[in-house]
Specification:
Blueprint: H1 6-16, E1 23-27, H2 34-44, E2 49-53, H3 62-72, E3 81-85, H4 93-106, E4 112-117, H5 120-130, E5 135-139, H6 145-152, H7 156-162, H8 175-198, H9 204-216, E6 220-221, H10 224-229, H11 237-249, E7 253-258, H12 263-268, E8 272-275, H13 278-285, H14 289-294, H15 296-313, E9 317-323, E10 326-334, E11 337-343, H16 353-360, E12 365-369, H17 378-384
Parallel strand pairs: 1-4, 1-5, 2-3, 3-4, 7-9, 11-12
Antiparallel strand pairs: 6-8, 7-8, 9-10, 10-11
Helix pairs in contact: 1-2, 3-4, 4-5, 7-13, 8-13, 9-11
Length: about 375
């Protein structure tokens, strides 16, 4: 039985039940079940539907998209539906979509359209430039702990180590095979094919090393200069920053900035690097589950990274804070509300940085995750969120 990701399906059902003629755009990383969820959705769709994908050996062009769209217009019934997967691989896709969608609106056609993509940078550029006011965006993040527990009966230790890639679950009883799946079937597809297909990568070795090094330093604050110094292939700070942006745009790693009321200081700060899924860390580090569980210091890094990833995947606006040797793991800004999140693994005590931050920002609300006197255990936080 296929597990239904209601966090994807429910917004789709809700949005398409409205009479408004608006495009539905689903965006998220590869291998998290976007396509599977859409096929489940199509089984329940009351009208006729058509599914097409641009994920082909030779990326199709705008003419292919136009012909696919026009064929879908011929579907019978009151609620025909077109789904186009990996839309960002079609050159100038947003301009073609704008033209075709505007034709449908002008002619009062009943065709509804869902577009799927796995590159945030390309999709955001197209949506901002051409499709303003014409779409609703649905985020399809990595699997949460709750979803993995319900679908695979996973423990918190399994989730913190293996992350939430459902396609890799059948291989978890063999670490070498599981690691190979993550590295070759997932990461190689993204960094070896998807990103280079649409972005020029002048230093591919540096690009790959940057991702591997980031995943070996989860939830750590590290300057780009220091990061560059640890790479075998040297490049400029600007090149490395660009590569981190591309990795972030593929939903692999997020560069969390230091919190400051002044935006210029936020931009200039060294980032805290958060892998969007812990499976990336474990696969690139290459240390099996049993040995990782014995390394309590690194296990704590996995716990902190998982909390940060959960906040980012939930769409929160996330920062960190530090001053000399004091640090707050995550600062979450919700409009006028400010939350200071401190993560402590095991029975340890929180870092004194939280007290210092609260003295600087008395309006902030502390949230202690794990450790003595916590508001939540790590497991409870990953189940409930903020």
């Amino acid at each position: 039985m296929t597990f239904k990701r209601e966090r994807i399906l429910s917004p789709l059902h809700k949005n398409l039940s409205r009479p408004a003629h608006v495009l539905q755009i689903l965006v998220g990383p590869r291998q998290v079940g976007k396509t599977t969820a859409i096929h489940e959705f199509l089984k329940e769709w009351p009208g006729k539907s058509s599914y097409a994908t641009a994920d082909q050996l030779t990326p199709p062009d705008a003419q292919w998209l136009a012909e696919t769209w026009r064929q879908a217009r011929k579907l019978p019934g009151k609620t025909p539906l077109l789904v186009v997967d990996e839309i960002q691989k079609v050159p100038r896709w947003s301009e073609a979509v704008k033209m075709l969608h505007d034709e449908d609106v002008l002619e009062k056609r009943s065709l509804r359209v869902i577009l799927l993509g796995s590159s945030a940078l390309l999709l955001q550029h197209g949506m901002q430039e051409s499709l303003s006011g014409r779409f609703q965006l649905i985020q399809c993040p990595h699997w949460s702990y709750t979803e993995c527990r319900q679908a695979f009966n996973w423990t918190i230790d399994q989730f913190l180590f293996y992350g939430g890639y459902p396609g890799a679950v059948p291989f978890v009883d063999d670490f070498a095979t599981w690691k190979d799946y993550i590295q070759n079937s997932l990461l190689e597809t993204v960094i070896g094919r998807d990103i280079p297909a649409v972005h020029r990568i002048d230093q591919p070795a540096l690009f790959r090393q940057a991702l591997a090094l980031v995943c070996r330093h989860p939830a750590e604050i590290i300057s780009l200069q220091k990061l560059l110094g640890q790479l075998l292939d040297r490049g400029s700070i600007n090149t490395l920053a660009n590569y981190l942006d591309l990795i972030s745009g593929a939903f692999l790693v997020e560069s969390v900035r230091k919190y400051s009321p002044r935006a210029i200081r936020v931009r200039a700060s060294s980032p805290k690097l958060i892998a969007r899924d812990n499976g990336l860390i474990s696969a690139l580090r290459g240390v099996p589950l049993e040995a990782t569980l014995k390394d309590r210091a690194f296990y704590g890094r996995l716990a902190e990274n998982a909390v940060g990833a959960a906040l980012i995947n939930a769409g929160e606006t996330v920062f960190y804070w530090s001053e000399r040797d004091k640090e707050v793991d995550f600062v979450v800004q919700r409009g006028l509300d400010l939350l200071a999140v401190e993560v402590t693994s095991g029975a340890g005590h929180p870092n004194p940085g939280l007290k210092t931050f609260l003295s600087r920002h008395p309006e902030a609300r502390p949230v202690r995750v794990g450790g003595a006197g916590a508001d939540f255990t790590v497991e409870q936080f990953l189940e409930r969120g903020l």
